[in-house]
Amino acid sequence: MIRTSGPLVEVAELTVRYGAATALDRVSLTVGVGELVALVGPNGAGKSTLVDTLSGILVPASGSVTVRGRLAHVPEGRQVFGDLSVEDNLRLGGWRIGERDTAAVYAVLPALTELRRRRAGLLSGGEQQMVAVGRALMSRPDVLVIDELSLGLAPLVVADLVRHLRELNAWRGVAVLLIEQNARLALDLCSRAYVLEAGRIVAEGTSAELAASSLVSDAYLGGVVVDGE
Amino acid sequence: MANELAGYVITGLGTGCGFALVGSGLVAIYRVTRVVNFAQGTFAVIGAMCASSLLSVLPHGIAEPLAVLAVALVGLLVGFVAIGRPGTTPQAALIVTLGLAIFAYAVVVLVWGDQPRSFAGVPGAVTVLDGRVQSHYLLVIGVTVPVFAGMALFFGHTDLGRALTACASNPYAARVIGIDVRRMGLLAFAIGGALGALAGVLLTPVQQITFDSDVTLIVNGFAAAVLGGLTRPAVTLAGGLLLGVTQALVAGYGNAAHQTEIALGLMLAVMIGRAARRPAALEEPT
After folding, report:
1. Which residue of A58, A135, B1, B21 pairs with B199 in a disulfide if CB–CB is 3.0 to 4.6 A?
2. Where in this chain does the entry annotate a coiled-coil region (chain B) (predicted)?
3. By C-alpha distance, which of A205, A203, A202, A209 is closest to A192?
4. Nearest-Cα residue of chain B relative to residue A52
5. Each residue of A67-122: pLDDT tens digit?
6. Are A116 and A106 in contact (CB under 8 A)?
7. ipTM reported for the complex, 2 dp
């Protein structure tokens, strides 16, 4: 773990545009060392745009993104390398830092051990999500940015993944920025959260505060059933 | 009759190796960039021309590998022009490679003239199963097989090969984990250039090459590659060999004027047969 003076991730007044359309409008957020932070919001709010900007795939129109330490990205829809084995998926996760030893990841996610020779594209959604998390862990991140952890997964599978994230956070001090449509899950796991709507942060605070606020409880917790479709 | 057959088959295997090399160059580039490189036959022509020039000052065994290396650089250059600009679609890049292939005609004619060129390969002939075969065809086969084996090792068992495969499998995820997809695309073009040049260098001693020889090579190479969905080198090798042997047999026992048409017709039949046997959705690149 690294020692820093400021937060691990600091997004300040970030604006991202796709041509004339503004996807993110002066968004600011922080993730501190070892912190679990959620970003909730409906489809099309700009959550994935924010993630892609954090990992350098999109370039901001204005504002700044500061990442102190290593950031790894678990993309929406898992995005495993379907043609490659689980082992090869993990090894590629270490590409950026030249890490090839996968043993540490199997120690954290033992369920992957027996799948290591299997082709990732043929695994279940939950197994693929675990591969995606493991691949991200290969780059020894200080912060994991997870885009839609629960999407399309059964509740039991999600619960298992959440348990692993808690362990990673508690044992290794890995910070997490969790981007979720399932607000109940996000607020349950994380200590702090932001609400993104139409490209703007409309609310922020501790998970308890947000869960209690009428804005969040009416829009995100009221009718939402905790499952993954 | 029997002695002729062995000769035709080995000759066909040799020619087929050339098609397979051109085809595998297409595959190397397509897998990573989704671009069908129409300049692939051009790499073979330029490789052969370079080798013929280098051979006037350098001995065999040095001139040929140098020509292959030189065309790897040409491949890199073609890659820069085709996919160097961020945001270029594979369709646009395809047209760029077609343009470059035509432009290359002018360059080749300007530098090497429009007359057929050849150079000596392995001299003499050997007897295989009572059939006489030009020895050079055995060299062609003897080089191609390890090259394909090496490619399989490279793509499956090295970090760089895995990264190239990752770009082919999921370009978005490749960028997410920090792989420079554009740079990998350029590397694929360089590999494609080397493979194309190798085909040209190997085939020229047994088949004269002219500035427009790329058409035959790309048509056959593409047919071989498309058999494997443009993504599978091993199937491309099989396809290339099938094409080469069919053409040699048609030319040997029938009419050489129709060898390409008949071989491509057979390829079409094989592909229709394969498509009928299993749904396209189940086809997975390896």
Report:
1. B21
2. none
3. A205
4. B176
5. 998 999 999 888 999 989 999 999 999 998 988 899 999 998 999 999 999 999 99
6. yes
7. 0.84
